[in-house]
Write a structure and sequence with these properties.
Elements lengths: L5 E8 L2 E9 H18 L12 H31 L4 E13 L2 E10 L12 E6 L4 H14 L2 E4 L9 E10 L2 E14 L9 H5 L7 E7 L13 E15 L5 H5 L7 H35 L7 H23 L17 H21 L5 H12 L5 H10 L1 H23 L1 E6 L2 H12 L1
Parallel strand pairs: 5-11
Antiparallel strand pairs: 1-2, 2-4, 3-4, 6-10, 7-8, 7-10, 9-10
Length: 445
C-alpha cells in the first residue's frame, strides 16, 4: 500500500466491515492540475484560439467536473488497495459513501461484505448413516433385461390390448358435445401401463381389439395444465387400428456388439454390467454420505451469509436451470425470460449452498487440508473409463487448467467429507441398488 494512504477498519458484523480511507489532497490536486493542462490544449471557448484559453477560464468552466472525475478515479484505485492491505476477504463490490475533503485529506468510507470467519461447530457430534448396496445376480439379470427392453420391437398381435402392449388408434374428444383444441389425433401410439394420458384413458382402451370402436368417459384432473379443461368431464371416441406386443431382441453377437462385447459372450456382458453397477453404487453411496454429513453440519451451524454471495449463488442456480431447460426443449438459454425464474425460487437452496461453501472453506483453512493430487489422477482415470477413448479424456483434463481445477475442487471437498466422517460416528446400512440410486437422483433435482 502506498505510504500516504491511511486506513482504519471497523467490523460491523460477521459479514460486513467498514473502512475509513484517507488520501492526501495533494494527490488529488496533482491529478486535477494534470488533467486541466490536458483539457487546456484542446478546449474551445468563444473568443479564444484553440490551446490559448487562459487557465483561469479552464478552471472556472471545467474545474469542478474534472475534480469530481479525479476523486472518483482515486476512490476506485485506492479502495481495493486498502482492502488488500488490510487483508480483508471481500465479497462483492464495496459501497462508497460519506466522501468529503477534510484537513488536507480526501476521506471516504467503504462498506464491504466479507467472507464470514466462523468457528465450525459440532464436527465431533456428527452421526450419519452410510448407505451401501450389493450387486446380486438378480440385479444383473434385471439390468440386462432392461437393456433388451430399450431395443425391443413391437409386433402385431391378435386379441385384446393388455399391459405393455402398444396400441395405435385415432381419438376425438369432446366436452358437452363440443370438440376442443388438442383433443383429437390420428395414428396415436400408446403403451398400456405408461401412464402418459389422463387417468381413465388407458383403462378405457385396455381390452379393446384392432378394428373396435367405442366412446370412453374421463375427467380431466383439477390441476391439469390447460385451465379451460381442468376438472371437466370429457368423452373420447376411440378407433383402435393396431395392437402390438413387445418382442425382446435375442442376446446374440449383434446385440452384444452394441455394448462393446466382442469376446466372452453373455458372461462378459454380465461382468461389464456388474462393474458398471458397482461403480454406480460407489458414486451413489459417496454422494449419499456426503449429503448426510453436510446436512448434519448445517443443522449445527446457522449464520448470516453476505448478500453478494447469496445473489451470486442464486444467479448460478438460475443459469443452471436455464441450461437444463435449453437442453430439454432444444432452445438457447438466452431465449428464456429470467422473470419466469424469480429469486424466491432459488433462495432456500442458494442459502444452503452458500453456507455450505463457507463451512467447507473454513474446515479446509483451519485443518490445513490440501488437494491430494494422486486422488485427482484417480478421479480423472475413473471418469475417463466411461468414454470410448479414455486416453483422450485424460489428456484433456491434464492439459486444461480450468477443468483440472474444477476436479481438484471436487476432490478437496471429498477430502473434507473424509475428515468430517473420521471425527464423527458413521453407521453402515445396507439398502437396495434401486433405492440407493433413486436417492441419488432425488438429491440431484
Amino acid at each position: 500500500m502506498a505510504t500516504d494512504l491511511q486506513v482504519t477498519t471497523n467490523k460491523l458484523s460477521n459479514k460486513e466491515t467498514q473502512l475509513t480511507v484517507k488520501v492526501p489532497v495533494e494527490k488529488i490536486q496533482n491529478k486535477v492540475e494534470g488533467r486541466i493542462s490536458q483539457v487546456a490544449k484542446t478546449a474551445k471557448i468563444d473568443g479564444f484560439r484553440k490551446g490559448k484559453v487562459p487557465m483561469s477560464h479552464i478552471r472556472s468552466q471545467y474545474g469542478a467536473g474534472i475534480q469530481q472525475e479525479v476523486i472518483n478515479d482515486v476512490i476506485r484505485d485506492t479502495v481495493f488497495e486498502a482492502i488488500k492491505a488490510e487483508d480483508i476477504r471481500a465479497v462483492g463490490m464495496p459501497n462508497i459513501d460519506d466522501v468529503k475533503l477534510e484537513d488536507d485529506f480526501l476521506v471516504y468510507q467503504a462498506t464491504v461484505e466479507i467472507f464470514p470467519e466462523i468457528d465450525v461447530q459440532g464436527i465431533d457430534e456428527i452421526e450419519v448413516e452410510r448407505h451401501t448396496a450389493t450387486v446380486s445376480d438378480e440385479y444383473v439379470d434385471t439390468m440386462i433385461e432392461n437393456l433388451q427392453k430399450q431395443r425391443q420391437e413391437y409386433v402385431e398381435k391378435k386379441g385384446k390390448a393388455a399391459k405393455d402392449n402398444q396400441v395405435t388408434f385415432d381419438f376425438e374428444g369432446s366436452i358437452d358435445g363440443e370438440k376442443f383444441e388438442g383433443g383429437s389425433a390420428e395414428d396415436f401410439k400408446l403403451v398400456i401401463g405408461s401412464n402418459q394420458m389422463i387417468p381413465g384413458f388407458e383403462a378405457g382402451i385396455k381390452g379393446m381389439k384392432a378394428g373396435e370402436e367405442k366412446v370412453i368417459d374421463v375427467t380431466f384432473p383439477e390441476d391439469y395444465q390447460a385451465e379451460n379443461l381442468a376438472g371437466k368431464e370429457a368423452q373420447f371416441k376411440i378407433n383402435v387400428k393396431l395392437v402390438e406386443k413387445p418382442k425382446l431382441p435375442e442376446i446374440d453377437d449383434e446385440f452384444l456388439e452394441l455394448f462393446g462385447v466382442t469376446e466372452g459372450g453373455v458372461e462378459k456382458l454380465k461382468e461389464d454390467v456388474r462393474k458398471n453397477m458397482e461403480r454406480e453404487i460407489k458414486n451413489a453411496a459417496r454422494s449419499q454420505v456426503k449429503q448426510a454429513t453436510f446436512d448434519a453440519l448445517l443443522e449445527k451451524n446457522e449464520f448470516d451469509v453476505p448478500n453478494a454471495m447469496l445473489e451470486q449463488e442464486i444467479e448460478r442456480q438460475r443459469n443452471m436451470m436455464m441450461q437444463r431447460f435449453s437442453q430439454q426443449f432444444g432452445a438457447s438459454a438466452d431465449s428464456f425470460d429470467k422473470d419466469m425464474l424469480p429469486n424466491e425460487l432459488f433462495e432456500e437452496q442458494a442459502l444452503r449452498a452458500a453456507r455450505l461453501g463457507i463451512i467447507v472453506a473454513r474446515v479446509i483453512d483451519t485443518k490445513g487440508l490440501e488437494v491430494d493430487q494422486e486422488r485427482v489422477e484417480n478421479f480423472i482415470k475413473e471418469a475417463a473409463e466411461n468414454y470410448e477413448d479414455p486416453s483422450e479424456v485424460i489428456e484433456y483434463y491434464t492439459n486444461d487448467k480450468e477443468q483440472r481445477a474444477n476436479i481438484e475442487s471436487v476432490v478437496l471437498e471429498d477430502q473434507v467429507v473424509d475428515y468430517l466422517i473420521s471425527q464423527g460416528k458413521v453407521t453402515d446400512k445396507e439398502v437396495s441398488y434401486q433405492d440407493l440410486l433413486a436417492a441419488q437422483q432425488q438429491q440431484a433435482m
